Every structure is written in C-alpha cells, then in structure tokens.
C-alpha cells in the first residue's frame, strides 16, 4: 500500500501523477485508478471535478459527487489523490473528502482574487499542512502572475516544501505544433525564483495530442524537472474532456518506463573531457556569431545614414520580404527550421530598425 497521510512532495523523485482529465462516472474513475495502481508507477491519482471550461456548454465536471469516487479509489488502492480547486467551497469540500493535494488550474492562477480565496481557505481549514498545493502556470506567459500566486500561498502559511509548480505550457493563439507552447526558458526563470521547489511538467496540456507526450516528457526529464502529471483514461476515445491527449493506463505505463531520467552530473573524466571539447567549439562559434551580428548592425546604421540623406522611411517591407525569403529558402541546406530562422530574422529586424531609428532621428 502506498502512503496516504500527509503526502510529501519531496519524497517522490520523479513525482508521477496520473488520472483522467475529468472524473466522469464512478465506474470510469475506479476503473482508471485500479488500472493505474496495477502499473505500480503512480504516486498520486488526479481528476478534475469542477472544470473551468473555456466555453459554456462544454462538460463542466460532476462536482462534489466525484470526490466520493476519488476517496473510494484511494481506499481501494492506497493511492493519494489530488483535485483542481478554484474557490473556498472547492477547498472545503476537497479537504473534507480527504484530498492529499489540490491544484489551481491555468485559468485560476491568472486571477489574484481566486488564488487569494483558495489560499485563505487553505489557511482557514488548516489545509496547508495537510495537503500539497500545486500551482499551475497561468494560461498566458506571465511569470510575475505565477510568482504572485506562489507568494499568496506562502503568505497564507503554506510551507514551501508543500508547494509545487506545474508547467502546462502557455497559450499561443493557435500557432505552433503543440496545444500550449512550452517556452521552457521561462520556467527556468520560475525555478530560479523558488529554488528547491518541486517543479513538474504537464505534457498532456502542453501537447494537446497523445502522440507528442513522449517527446515532451523526455525533454522535461532532460531539463531536470522533478516529475510529470499525465492524463489517463480507461477509454480515452470516450472522454468528455481532452480526449485527444489522454492515454490508457497501459500506454501510460509504457510511456513512463520509456523516459530516461538522466543524472544531473557525473565526474567521469572521459565524459567531462569530450563535453569540454564541444563546449569550447560552441564558445568559439558564439563569438563568431556575435561578431558578425555586431558588424551587421554597424552596416544597418550606415544604411540609416543613407536613408536619412535620401529622406526615405526606415521600414522597407519589400526588402525585408526578400531577405526573409532568401534565408528561408536555405532552411533545408542549413538544417535549421523555418520557425527558428524566422525568430532570428525577427530579432535582427527589430534591432536593425531600432539602430536606424537612432541614426535617422539623431539631433532632431
Ligand atoms: C486539467 O488539468 O485538466 C486542466 C484543466 O488543466 P489546465 O488548468 O492546465 O488547463
Ligand atoms: Mn485536461
């Protein structure tokens, strides 16, 4: 039997959470949890009971009744459980049902009022010492908002070791391969703000589609995340929410077993030597790249002088279109994706305009 009282986030490395997006029926909840328990790979069972859906009319969860199913699943399997909460009433009901963790979803972390209400309720019902509190990132890439949510929980007296961060990706207006953009570097920033705080990835909500779960999970492991939360369902095709990203408990087991949680570091001298060799090459190449960029910007400034003398505008859309097209046409030969080339071109363009603007408006 797994430990049920006072769930300790730090005691599980990697911390693995799984369960359906939503608890839908007693049978589906129990069937999924029993199958997950049989894998022996789950530290915590998850399900949404109250679902903050983007559009009204979508399945909004079964409500408090689902908590009884989760408590029953815990009695049967010994696996602790966590649910999403968005209000004081949710916290009260989740605690009364014996939840081991609560989390704020992406649509709740964006709202300081809602986060404060959840934090106050955890304090009022002395939940902070009893449960783990997981804070999903807000739906938009706003680290300050995510930070503020964590600070509200800390200020409500919840110890830092009971708080965890869940990275579920950021909304990106439908562009890109995944449902939500991972923007991994932003999350390193978050880790820097709360060193030592458990941080897990949510490949299901980043991916939006089950075929991407493995690559995202491995990336999270390689980036030293402390664990994963993965949606699973006994019959994913019939799921009432997030059907495209859920997997069966058996697929979940296969996925988890395939992840390589590599060591953070090694002192093997042969390994360090080959790493150093490559790092030296990288440093040299970076020097060359930035030297070229510096020269390029100086030429941009000279173009600024010419445009000023000729009294023409900075932005020459046709010319930029041609530059972009010429570089992108080399994407295959360079073995660099169009997305990456576009990002670099955009950064160069913005800086060029900025430099030319300075030159052309000097002394005016
Ligand atoms: C969920 O975990 O099912 C959920 C709604 O996620 P998010 O808040 O990340 O969208
Ligand atoms: Mn979901």
Properties at a glance:
eight-stranded parallel beta barrel; TIM Barrel; 10% strand; single chain; alpha/beta; 2 domains; binds manganese (II) ion; Chorismate Mutase Domain, subunit A; 14 helices; binds phosphoenolpyruvate; 364 residues
Question: What does this molecule look like?
Answer:
The chain has 364 residues and is an alpha/beta fold. The chain folds into two domains: 15-258, Aldolase class I (TIM Barrel, Alpha-Beta Barrel); 269-360, Chorismate Mutase Domain, subunit A (Up-down Bundle), CATH 1.20.59. It is 50% helix and 10% strand. The chain has 14 helices and eight strands. The chain has helices spanning 26-39, 65-77, 88-96, 106-109, 112-124, 143-155, 184-193, 203-207, 213-222, 249-258, 269-310, 317-328, 331-334, 338-360, and strands spanning 15-19, 44-47, 81-84, 101-104, 132-136, 163-167, 198-201, 227-231. The chain has an eight-stranded parallel beta barrel with strand order 1-2-3-4-5-6-7-8, surrounded by five helices. Helix 3 links the parallel strand 3 and strand 4 (101-104). The longest helix is centred in the C-terminal third of the chain and has 42 residues, at 269-310. The chain is elongated. The protein starts with 14 loop residues before the first strand and ends with a helix. The model has no long low-confidence stretch (mean pLDDT 94).
Distinct helical segment count: 14
The total count of strands amounts to 8
Cα-atom radius of gyration: 25 Å
Name the CATH superfamily classification of the largest domain: Aldolase class I
What's the short version?
The protein is α/β, with parallel strands linked by helices and 364 residues long. It contains 14 helices and eight strands.
